Amino acid sequence: MRQTKTSARHTMSAVCCRASAVRTLLVCLLGPLASAPASALRAPVWPGALARARRAAAAVTACAAPPSGFAALGVREEVVEALAAEGATAPTEVQRRAIPMLAGGADVVLGAQTGTGKTFAYLVPIMQSLKAAEEAADGARSRPRRPRAIVLLPTRELALQVRGVAKAIGHRLKLSVGAVHGGVPEGPQRRLLDSPLDVLVATPGRLVQASLEPAESARRHTSKSPRY
Q1: Distance (Å, whole) CA 105 – CA 35
Q2: 167 shares its domain with 132
Q3: Which residue range is the domain that position 112 belongs to?
Q4: What is the pTM of this model?
Q5: Are 188 and 170 found together in one domain?
Q6: How far is Cα 3 from Cα 5, in angstroms, rounded to an integer?
Q7: What is the DSSP letter of 147?
Q8: Which among 1, 89, 104, 147 has the fewest CB atoms less than 10 Å away?
Q9: pLDDT tens readout for residues 179-210
């Protein structure tokens, strides 16, 4: 008990030191004591010392408040703004689980109901990684004659929907987005594959056709292969 009283006296004496650097350090050490009532210390309390310690501890706690929402998942500020413009202001359960894992390079299989944000869950980490690769190269953006990332969808309707979301994010990150799918002439989409492109959204059948030489593509088309 005597040792405890002596320690408390020494600590409170140190708080009243005039040296600002020493006072700041000891305020951190006073965390448990600063939240305790003055009577619990059973030591002389100098006027204002305990109050200053409590105010400093509260200020430190406020400054250290962790980020919330998409920012807590490591989503860039400009992407958060793009998501908000699309009506997504808080992450869903599938987004909270998938975004950090995909951003870390994990292989993930997502399964969730329609409307739970699966598109954002995989597009956000993909497109952020592309932008991070550019920034790591000091802005020396490579222009390969092939897409840097490909998103495959089973139907044209889904491809158009995902392309719209990818374009909204790509606009903020300055990434190019294109799509190849059935129901439109093949020529322009073939030329799209020969242009520098960051993200390609595609249906499997049309991607295969657009990737082939024109003669081979025509032969496959006349064989009545399925169109997607």
Answers
A1: 43
A2: no
A3: 67-137
A4: 0.62
A5: yes
A6: 6
A7: E
A8: 1
A9: 999 998 888 888 888 888 899 999 999 999 88
